[in-house]
């Protein structure tokens, strides 16, 4: 029994070590191509699954804190019926930037494992730090995720308040500011901003 198993394993090891002796080059190329498609399809499906609202709100930290807050905003319910989900604002749409963000977000899994924000009190204590990380990311990419839906070129300034139209037509147009500079707290409650530099 053991000898038969050993011979079978040695046979397959020989095939793996020198596949061209056993199979044609065309078969190997075609097999590699099919295996690549299957791997890529599985990988892409897994990545898209992690962008779903169900995945994002799967842990109670997100569901009871930030998701509950989102439900009360115009990004969740509005007259046009267009709703932003977590990944629309927190995951870049471009593939390379998306992969970089996914790797960065894998660090957040440690927070889940070690219970960094597993209670409302812990979440509120860490809220300013979490918000500042996200604001810095949006500032660095010129609020790219906002601009995926809100195209500055198509804004109708005549339908905006006087103050908003003035800001959009000057500060944003000149490149001095980006969306997140003025719209902190648009989808989630603001942390305690007392003592934060530059906050009015």
Question: Radius of gyration, rounded?
Answer: 25 Å
How much of the polypeptide forms β-strand, as a percent range?
under 5%
Unreliable runs, pLDDT <50, ≥5 residues?
A: none
SSE order: HHHHHHHHHHHH
Quick one: how many beta strands?
Answer: 0
Into which percent range does the helicity of residues fall? 55-70%
Tally of helical runs? 12
Describe this structure as you would to a colleague.
With 200 residues, this protein is mainly α. The protein has 2 domains: 1-49, no CATH class; 59-182, no CATH class. Helix content is 62%, strand content 0%. It is built from 12 helices and no strands. The protein is elongated, with a radius of gyration of 25 Å. The mean pLDDT is 85.
Features:
single chain; 200 residues; mainly alpha; 12 helices
